[in-house]
What does this fold into?
Amino acid sequence: DAKTTQPTSMDCAEGRAANLPCNHSTISGNEYVYWYRQIHSQGPQYIIHGLKNNETNEMASLIITEDRKSSTLILPHATLRDTAVYYCIVSRSLNNNDMRFGAGTRLTVKP
Amino acid sequence: EAGVTQSPTHLIKTRGQQATLRCSPISGHTSVYWYQQALGLGLQFLLWYDEGEERNRGNFPPRFSGRQFPNYSSELNVNALELEDSALYLCASSLDRGSPLHFGNGTRLTVT
It folds into this structure.
């Protein structure tokens, strides 16, 4: 699986958009980009995933560059409850058992 | 819908003992995954069960084992516990091998 690189930590003001970057320069053509988050003392929560096109759901938007070497998760209006560790994962062929969670980005939303 | 449930929430064992952790997947989900999250470390893939069979395992010794029952619930057994087995053990389920993972809130195992 391709390796991902994420900033260790980020801050965001409450009500503003949070933009979390992820580099995956060695991603293969059949690998998807997944985002999960883990709020303290809870299990990880699925957010969104995509292959080539940008995706949006009720939680977030995923912007994937044309060369697919990087992506950005966007939380449009961050709240204090969005404070969590966010994991960017690339996984081939929607193959869950190959998912590798790295250290992620610790996002702190501040009032 | 009810989420993935894990029991017990906390478990304290002594070195050398055995621990049994349980997981009930979301109704209709046939795949169950186990992960270990040691303090300060990322999630490490342990085991994957699908349709009652072990399909893959991570880089863990054989004393980590498990099974999946006909109702798709699962058990993780850790034999001959060592201090470094202290961690949060997370179970996840998915509708199939390609669907997103849904995690429980884990069992925190402490080995003294």
Chain A has a mean pLDDT of 91. Chain A touches chain B through 21 residues (CB under 8 Å). DSSP finds no helices and nine strands in chain A. Residues 8 and 105 of chain A are 5 Å apart (CA to CA).
